[in-house]
Structure formats: structure tokens, C-alpha cells
Amino acid sequence: MVLKTTIKGFTTAVKGLLLTVKHLFGARQSRGELDIRRSDYFDKQEGIVTVQFPKEKMPLPEVARYQLDVEIDDCIVCDLCAKACPVDCINIEAVKSPEAIGKTSDGSVKRLYAAQFDIDMAKCMYCGLCTVVCPTECITMTNQYDRSTTKLTDLIYGFSEMSDAEVATRKAEWTQFQAEKEAAKKK
Amino acid sequence: MEELLIHIIVPIAIFGFVALFTLFAVYAERKIAGFVQDRLGPMETGKYGMLQTIADILKLLQKELITPKVADRILFATAPVLIFVAVFIGFSVVPWAPDFLPANTHTGLFFLMAVVSIDALGILMAGWGSNNKYSLLGSIRAIAQMVSYEIPVGLSLIAAVMITQTLNLNDIAFNQGILANENIYFLGLWDVSEIGGILAWNIFQAPHLIVVYIIFFIATLAECNRAPFDIPEAESELIGGFHTEYGGIRFAFIFLAEYAMMFLVSILGVTIFLGGWNTPLPNIGVIKMADWTTGLFWGIFWTLSKSLIVVGVQMWIRWTLPRFRADQLMSLCWKIMIPLAFVCMAISALWRILVMV
To answer: What is the value of ipTM here, to two decimals?
Structure first.
């Protein structure tokens, strides 16, 4: 009984040793293909599998969902992305404008100023729902995924280009416009 | 004066060699581990990560020596020294080349076995002195294992010594090649005293010594506390085993001792079974390959390369086989290896009487 298990142990150990030595000498080459979309991907998987990350990167598919980017000039501040976000990582503050500000690149009329457009990348779960609902396609997913910071707050990306003073003047403009409208109504 | 100088230089040279070997072996170990698992191993420090172990040792040397509050200070501080010294002294009787060894004593092998077994005491001191349950569990396991495996090691050495008829490691190495003082028979039949090479090695002088060498190799693997017999260290169960509480230079010494022990048992196995400093190339007719490749530097070269190959096999085994359970470890030792070693010892005795005469 003991002898039988010992002999079995030895033969299986030898089998394992042969397997590992095959891998030891197989390590002379790295695997040939990193892009899983290629048809010969699974034929070239012999050898070392390590991808030395910052120096070499895995190829990304076009539909890859990584960090968000906002083209603020195209944004009509409709707040749809913030509503669609399942984790509420988008924080938008709009300031109304008395008249149309301008047009986006696809012809939509902008009527709101984006006083604040913050995306918290630490909260973002990269679902991509915001990019689907955006009417002007100004919020997109990029191929950037390697952003390390030492402060957590650095991961809150602000996309609004308005300064505090500008926001204050726009707010004042709108209150003035409202007041004028009220005054006109009363007459 | 000159003799005194030699007595100082030789230990320093051996220490330097052991330290260099450890640096190299840790790097090799990590690279082999990487390659076996289809990884790259260390790659960042220096080209191909070659400075990795130097960076590691520099980090260890700079670290603060921390002694746990309730530890036994004296035992805790002396244990790493004892562990290392026990292994280090073992190198004093091992031959590197013809008549090139620190101490040529007639009781070399006996001395080596006696000194190296002090290692177990050092491990017990480390585990007990740390006053930590994991350390103590680790050292209990280590002692049980080392004491048990000392027996197959001893028996396999006796089986070999019965054939060689000497405990002097220098003489044992001499009688396995073309410089032998007596006639050597390949498998007890064919006189290969002039041919030498691989045919004259001890494992081929008597065929059962191959089995004895395998027993010796497995048992010394357990003596070194290396995987698959690394239950005293068992990272996944005991954190670090007996060296859990150690840091800095003390840990470096325990580490050094582990790798020195690996090399010591490899070179011992090479000396006794695999021809020591003798060349594996035989004389064939006019092509005197054995004559050409025997000498001081050739001797060092062969000893070193054979030992490093054995160390490589130890590493290969470590990264292949999973750890034994404590009871499996004991049953392998007591139920398989010790009876087998006894049988081999009996065969050696008969071989000596009936074949070698």
C-alpha cells in the first residue's frame, strides 16, 4: 500500500517535472500574438505570457470602454449623461442664458452654460451609458486607462472651461433677465 | 605567519563565495520560477533584473534590527549566527580540486555531518526565542523533519562509505577518476582506472549507489527545508515559519544559511557520488580527454558546474512539486526511505565482500 502510493507519487512527480522543464525551455520565446481579434491568436500562445505593461501594451479593440472625455464646446448641458449614470459620478451645474449662445458642431443650439462639469473617475464604472444618451456625442470613451495619482481628488476631472468670475457674471445676467421679464409682466 | 594568513584568507574566500553564490542563486531561483510559470521573473532592476538581488541585500542591510518585546533576547540574537556558522563550517572539509580543500582530515565526512546537524539547534533557538506561535510551530516541524531525515542521509552516506572505505572527502574524490590510488571497476566488472571520466564515478562503480544517491538527494532536500519539504517555512500556513520575526541583517543570515546549505549538500553529493572534481569526459584510446581536463582549475570548474547543476535541479523540483503534508513527510521518511537505505547498506556490504574483494 505504502509502496504503491510511493511509486505512484514518484511517477507523477516525474511527469510534473517533465512538464515544468518543457515550460522552462519554452521560455526562450514570448507568445507571438497579443491581439485576440486575429484569427491565429490561439496558435501563437506558446512561451512567456507577461506583457511588460508600461513598455508594451495590449492592443485595444475599438469599442473598448476606458476613461471618459468631454468635448465641452459641443455640450448643450442637457444633463442626460448625469441622469443616465448608474453611479452618479457626473456632476453638472448649468446656468441659463437669455439668448442662444451658439451652435455645436452638429448644429444643435446651445442655450445653457456649463458652469460645472465634473466626472469622478474613481466612481466611474466604465459602463458607457452616458456616451449612448448624449444627443451631441460630446461625451466619449477614450483609450486612456493608465492614470495614477497620489491624491484621490485628482481623479475628479473637471471639463468646464468657465472661470468663477465668468460664472458669476452669467448668473447675474440671468437674474437680471428674469427681473426684467418680471417687471415687463407686471406692467 | 604565512600559515596564519592562510587560515584567515580561506574562510573569507569561502564566505565571499557563499555570499556571491546566494546572490546568484536567489536571482536564478526567481528566474527559474518565472520561466517555469511562463513569466519573466525580475526585469526592472538592471538589465534583465540582474541587480535585483543586490538591491534586495542592500535593503536588508539597511533595515533596523527589531527584537520582539517578549522575545528571549540572547537566543533570538544568536540563532541566525549559529544557523549560518553551522552550515559555513561544513564547507571546511569539502574538496574543490585535487588536494585543494580547506582541511584535509580523515574524519571529514563525519565532521561535516556532525557540524551541519547543529543547524537544527539554531532553528529551534530561532523559533523558541521569537516567542511567536508561528515561529515555534515552524521550528517544531523543522526539528521533527531534520532529525528524521538525518537518518536516511546518514544511512545513504554509510552505504557509500562502505564502498569507498574512507571518510576523508579528499580520498573519496580521488578514487573516482584517473588519479585514483586503487583500481576502479565500472559496475564492479570493467577496470576503468585508466579510462576515468563518468564511468569511474561512485554511482557507476556500484549500481545500487544510484538509488542511494536518489535517497541522499531527497533526504538532503528535506534537510535544507526546501520545497516540497518546506513545511517548516510554509508561507501559506505559518507566515514565515521559524524566521517570521526576523528582519534586516539577521534575516539575511538565515537566508544565506539556507542557500549555503543547498550548495553544501549539492557539493557533498557531488563529492561522494558524482565524482567530485573529476571530469565526466573519459579517455578514449589516444584521445586523452580525462587527462586533459584534470587539474586545479579544471577541478574547481567541474566541482562548481556539477554542484550548480544539482542546485538547479533542487530549484526545478521546488517550482514543480507542491508541499508535503507533515504526516506524508514522516511516512515517506520512516516507511520508504529508511528501509530502502538499510537495504542499500546491506547491498553495499555484500558488494564490498563479494564483488570488490
So the answer is: 0.77
